[in-house]
Amino acid sequence: MNAKISLAALLLFSGAFCAQAQNTVVGTGVSGTGNVNPPSTQNTVVGSLIGGAANTGGSNSFFGYQAGMSNAGGGKNTFLGALGGASNISGGENVFTGYSSGNKNSSGNYNVFTGAYTGFNSSKASNNVFTGWSAGYSNVKGEHNVFSGYRSGYFNLADGNTFYGAYSGLNNTTGTGNVFSGMNAGYSNTTGVFNTFTGSNSGYSNTASNNTFYGYESGRSNTTGDLNTFTGTNSGYSNRDGYANSYYGYDSGRLTTTGWQNSFLGYNAGYSNTTGNQNVSVGASSGYKNTIGINNVFVGFVAGFYTTASSNAFVGSGTGFWNSTGEGNAYFGSNAGFNNKTGSRNVFLGDSAGYNELGSNKLYIANNSATTLIYGDFSTGKVGIGGINTYATADTFPTTAGAVSLANYKLFVKGGILTEEVRVNLMSAWADYVFAPDYQLKPLAEVETFIKENGHLPNVPSAAKVAEEGLELGEIAKVQQEKIEELTLYLIEQNKKIEELTKQVKILSERN
Which position has the higher pLDDT, 461 or 469? Predict the structure, then answer.
């Protein structure tokens, strides 16, 4: 007898190898007899104490000490590794690879576990994919999960989660519909649902729901805040309870703790915000120092950099840069209101408008740093047009025009006005009082005397007064109308005298 025949005979009579009913059994021990005797078919069993003594399942492949040891009716399983699928009874079409992978699975189907202790306690769950040492270790009934990485989803009991990276989703228990990608991503999440965390330590402390964090340590401290979207390294890093925030960019909203409904876009945008609400910062370092201010809009590089107040709107690079406590300001244009620190309720429009203004309630419209086209003061209601001053000092409304005091006027236009029409609303009665029966019309002789003594008509301002105070259009128009109507009365009176003289001349002529 040659060597091949001798080996075959040895294996056959020793009980170490048996091939019957399309089963292949290699190993020793009492378990696995069900694979030797029909009705189980097409099984491959290699190792000690494996395969199930009463196995009736078919098309299984068990490799390793006690792999599939309890299998009874489960079919189409592949268990590779000592104690792999050791408790499986009726579960089918599972693939367990690694020491004790799927150890407690009894009736779960369509699972793929790769790595030592993967899905160790999964007993009745199905349709899971666990890859990495102890990934999905405690999963008992959670289904449709994908865990990849060392201890990823270790305590998971829920459905529909996807965890990639060492320790990702480690403490998740009942949270569903989560996607965690990166080492420690979603590490502390237990019950939060529908979160998406991508990046190492992203959402590390999260326990809330409906958050989306992208980037290294993005949303790391978030606990109960929900409906947040943080994108960028350290974005929303300190957020704990704040909700409905959107941060995009490295360190954007990094220090926010409880602030809500903020939108920060750009490197360091809204960096220092802690409890401020409903702010919008767009641009690198925009709103950088704002901590508790609310309802601010900062758009542009370092716009509102030092602002800690509320209700400001700064649009343009460097707008409101030094503003700290001023509120209710609206600055539009590069460097508008740059040096204003504490002023409130200002409106600056244009490049460098109000650049050196330090006060409050001011209006500036300019397109350069030299001249203000329009200046106004909301506290007095005054407006100046035409470059009334320069930025050498803080702009102020002029007090005089020539020798004329502007104390009682609301609008000053340097250089004059050209217009097609001016309509004046008189503050006193029109000159028709001249035609009233009781009007005292001065005799011409008296008017002549007044002119000789004063050098102007009665009730008409002198040249000196006009030079000093200027003209009030409405008043001077009324006075001129008064003189026209008086002149008309004089003409009527003269006409009557002329007619009377004409009659007398005619009578005298007829007599002669």
Answer: 461
Residue 225: which of 212, 216, 215 has the closest Cα? Answer: 212
| Cα(304)–Cα(287) distance, integer angstroms | 5
How far is the C-alpha of 176 from the C-alpha of 194, rounded, in Å?
6
**Residue 80 parent element (H or E):** strand 78-80
Q: Determine if residue 292 is left, alpha or beta; phi over 0 gives left, psi from -120 to 50 gives alpha, anything else beta.
A: alpha
Cα–Cα distances (Å) from 206 to 163, 373, 512, in that order, read: 14, 54, 128
Output the six-digit token pair for 194.
Answer: 């529908």
- Residue 487 tokens read as 């002149």
Q: What residue has token string 């401290």?
A: 221
User: For residues 96 and 78, is the Cβ–Cβ distance under 8 A?
Assistant: yes
Indicate the Cα dihedral angle 97, 190, 213, 275, nearest 10°.
-160
Q: Is the pLDDT of residue 362 over 80?
A: yes
In this prediction, residue 425 carries a pLDDT of 83
Question: In this structure, what token pair is assigned to residue 512?
Answer: 């002669």
* Cis peptide preceding 39, ω within 30 of 0: yes
Both structure tokens of 131: 């890859």
